[in-house]
Amino acid sequence: MSAEPTYPTPDATALVTDADEQTAEEPLGQFISLRVLYAAVRRGRRLWLTTMAIGLVAGLLASYFLPTSYSATTQLILGHSGAVDVADAMATDLALLQTQGVAQRVVSRLHLHESAESLLGQYSGITPSNQVMTITVTAPTASEATARANAVAAAFLSFRAQEYRRQNQVAVSALDAQQNGLAAEVTQLGSLIRGLPSGPNTAGSSVAGTITALQSEQTQDINQEAQIQQTVQSDNLNVETEIGSSSVLAPAVSSHHSHLKRIVTDVLVGLLVGAVVGMGAAVLAAAVSDRVRRREEVAWNLNAPVELNLGPFHRPRWHAALRLRHQMEQPQPDTVRLAQHLRAKTAGGQSSLAVVSIDSDEATALAVACCAKELIRDGREVLVMDFTDDGVLSKLFGLAPPGTAASTESHDSASTNGTAAANGTAAANGAVAQSGNGETDSPDGNEVKVYGPSANGWVEAPAPVGKCVLVLATLSPLLGAEHLLPWAQEAVAVVTAGRPDREKVRANAELLQAAGVRLDSVVLIGADRNDYSLGRRSWTSPMAERLRSVPREPVKTSHQP
Question: Are residues 223 and 114 in the same domain?
Answer without folding.
Answer: yes
